[in-house]
Structure prediction request, 296 residues.
Amino acid sequence: ASAPLSATKTIYAYDLAQNATPVTFQLTPDSLPPVGGAINYAGGVISASSTSVTFAPPSDAESGISTTQLARSQSRLVNGACEPFPSAQPIGAANPASPYVDSTITSGFCYRYALRATDNVDNATIISPITTLMVDATPPVSTISASAARPLSGIAPVTGTAADAESGLQAVDVNVTGPASESICHATVLAGGWNCTWDTRSIPNGAYVITTLATDVAGNSSTTSRSVQVFNAPTDVTPPTGGSITYASATINTGSATVTFASGTDAESGIASVTLQRASASLTANQCGAYGPFAP
Prediction:
């Protein structure tokens, strides 16, 4: 731009006797706004209750800088996204010092800052970088679905829900403690729900506590726990041992026979049931024919 045109003006002051004193001054037009300057602040998601804004005011080589003023625009933070921003409004006193600490930010809101500089003839410059600060100090919430009344066994599903209404959910870590402690999974949440599978076959039977650690994008976290029982029947490939059966080996003329027996033992899974079975054959001329299969 070309330099503004200047003009010299003179005014006269008269007393009642018409004595005059001239005063000369320079008029310089200024139609250009201040130039330069910068403003910086942290973008992204934070959980803190304050933030620092640093800035360097613009300069004005003509009429000079009159005032500087910080301004802030805020909108709601919903599920990791900011709603539309309204016009920025002044924050703090005029002509602030850098850095400016804004301790009035609130969880669940998005913020943008701007610096307005005005020269001595009211030309103004607004510096407003498109940097968005999102504040989330609220932990996420999560649940663990109730398991069936019977103990868990084998490869068991473990499911639940998790959500964060502000910055959004990042992940759910599922762990278990009890007779054995281990990580079940690092779950990704889809449509508000998470699911894992827990292989209980290699751990001791007993009472366990499943705990979820839900973490949001801002780093806030919360835990939820549920108690469960695990029971896997032991693997037993060895049949019972011992046992005996006794009855009379003779020809009788009665309709009943007495059978005595001992069921034996099983040192692993134990005896589940005992069934007495019988095979029969036709008796002809004091000789038994072919025996059929044993049946209860």
Observations:
- The chain has a mean pLDDT of 90.
- Residues 81 and 167 are 7 Å apart (CA to CA).
- The first strand starts at residue 7 and ends at 14.
- The two ends are 113 Å apart (CA to CA).
